[in-house]
Amino acid sequence: METTLFYIFAxxxxxxxxxCVANPFSRNPVTSAMFLVLTMISISGLFILLQAxxxxxxxxxxxxxxxxxxxxxxxxxxxxxxxxxxHVRKVALVTGLVSVMGLGVMLVLSIAxxxxxxxxxxxxIGDTKLLGQLLxxxxxxxFEIVSVxxxxxxxxxxxxxRKEAK
Amino acid sequence: MDWINNLIxxxxxxxxxxxxxxxxxxxxxxxxxxxxxxxTVLVERKVSAFIQDRVGPNRTAPPFIKYLPxxxxxxxxxxxxxxxxxxxxxxxxxxxxPSHVRTIYFWLAPVLAMVPALLTIAVIPxxxxxxxxKMVIADLNVGILYTFGxxxxxxxxxxxxxxxxxxxxxxxxxxxxxxxxxxxxxxMGLSVIPVFMMVGDLNLGAVxxxxxxxxxxILYAPVSFAMFLVAAFAETNRLPFDMPESESELVAGYNTExxxxxxxxxxxxxYAAMVAVSGMMVTLFFGGWTLPxxxxxxxxxxxxxxxxxxxxxxxxxxxLLLLFIWVRWMxxxxxxxxxxxxxxxxxxxxxxxxIVVTALVLLLLNRN
Lengths: 166, 368
Fold this sequence. Notes:
The complex is a heterodimer.
Chain A: H1 2-21, H2 29-49, H3 53-78, H4 90-114, H5 119-126, H6 128-135, H7 140-161
Helix pairs in contact in A: 1-2, 2-3
Chain B: H1 2-9, H2 13-51, H3 71-78, H4 82-92, H5 103-121, E1 129-130, E2 133-134, H6 143-153, H7 155-165, H8 168-199, H9 204-214, H10 217-220, H11 222-235, H12 247-250, H13 260-285, H14 303-330, H15 336-367
Antiparallel strand pairs in B: 1-2
Helix pairs in contact in B: 2-4, 2-13, 2-14, 4-13, 5-6, 5-7, 5-13, 7-8, 8-11, 8-15, 11-13, 11-15, 13-14
């Protein structure tokens, strides 16, 4: 049962992800955004199968519910027309390939490095209390670094969007 | 009753769960939610009539009902049959799609407007127990996060309706709605954190147990309740925050191009969302299905008691619905920038302060 569901959700995630970036039927940005929403929802299905209910709920709350709504908001505000097949610049191609390869290497290394862990980790990601305690003890430093990073991004946005002071 | 018991005993645990869940879903939607939605519309019309010194719907009745002595004319004057006529009218109207709409989204949007409200109902405990069954459809250990996740999806119905209609006013309505819902989601999320800090559990059943022991949260967390209430008005697009459809500026906002049952789904979706958010408020701040007297705060032991619990829950929910309706006809609409200012510059700092103060108080109380 769980294995079947895993394959269903994994296939859906990949399918929706593919339709988001390379939809052969439509080059409409809103359609892409909606497929990204569906991708997020399928990913949260995978989290539920891992019994990580907290992550599943947060995945929908933050990504599907907030981030993607802002995406839609911007797409609609800018009134983007259907994207045409544009000429791919060399710089974009090179940087794109390099970052994809970098991410791929990171992914493979971290999966290979961690090994397959069973039960105890499973319990920890499902339990909100344990998750909070781990974040504020074992993983305090990375947690705080991420917070500072977010703060810097927020201040950066405010600075960029601020009207010129006379 | 015997053959039912035998039938149930013959099923495996998984089958029983599926059967009872299905029964609860069907009962909650078709016996409770949809009738409440229909009659909330009637109450809305009657209350608005009362406030504006009119009579309200008092003519609709099936033929011959007026020949019933006393009861017939009374029901007719109360407008009891009006929702039936309204529903029939919505179904029979021409389902017209303007030629300039984006067809797929035009069909998808009304569905997405209705579904989130139905999904939210799933985690709200609407009673204690009926026999051995807990009266909640899905007893999740992250109940409140699930609710917020689903509520955050409810914006898509409106935004896509605005986009699908492909014309000016719906588009403006959709854009307004996306900004408004995002802003007030944050305020809403921040407002309930103190409640869960006190309970120490994200499960909604645990919240009710805590309130049965210690008293309702409206007494402990009035600031949270006030913020949640205002945010709920914004999230359900009700006056004084009905910017996405404000008739005087945007014709009818996001649903301008809709007719017949597609419009009906938006309409029902709004009321279903009101019912869901009222149920949430009852659960979080008014003790859910409990009452502090007559021993109604313990899980039910008899059929009568469990019925009483469900009745208590529904009664409280209806009270809050009445508040929603009352406010709609008493307050004028906010301006859009006022709405945004209130959300970002007042509620978010207030919510954060509320969390810090609650944390300090809890810390001091636990130290002693």
